[in-house]
Write a structure and sequence with these properties.
Layout lengths: L2 H9 L3 H15 L3 H14 L5 E7 L4 H12 L3 H9 L3 E7 L1 H13 L3 E4 L1
Antiparallel strand pairs: 1-2, 1-3
Helix pairs in contact: 4-5
Length: about 120
């Protein structure tokens, strides 16, 4: 029997009939189908994002070292890097790997900035 036909047949059942079906499946196969269905979304939620954004939240007390790091990370000129730092909170790099984001975060924090990775 095709899965689509099984689904159509299940749509015609009442909640009580579906509960009985689940109980029969537990008996027959020794597995709770509702537990399997609940585990799938939990596994997907544990996956780390493949791309993140590094956001400069605050430049801290010493702005010049932070501007220097932003320039080296982004390739911006002095004026544009200063403007970016002054406009905090601002995205420094978007859609990058979590590993690269952690490296950028550590460089900025070492310069005295407050950084967030999302």
């Amino acid at each position: 029997m095709e899965n689509s036909k099984i689904i159509e047949a299940l749509k015609e059942k009442t909640l009580l009939e579906l509960k009985d079906l689940v109980d029969l499946m537990k008996e027959e196969f020794g597995v709770d189908p509702s537990a399997v269905a609940a585990a799938a979304p939990a596994e997907a939620a544990n996956d780390e994002p493949s791309e993140v954004t590094v956001t400069l939240v605050n430049h801290g007390q010493k702005k010049i070292p932070v501007i220097k790091v932003v320039r080296s990370l982004t390739g911006l000129g002095l004026k544009d890097a200063k403007k970016l730092v002054d406009s905090a909170p601002a995205a420094i790099k978007e859609d990058i790997s979590p590993e690269e984001a952690e490296d950028i975060k550590s460089q900025l924090e070492e310069a005295g900035a407050e950084v967030e990775v999302k």
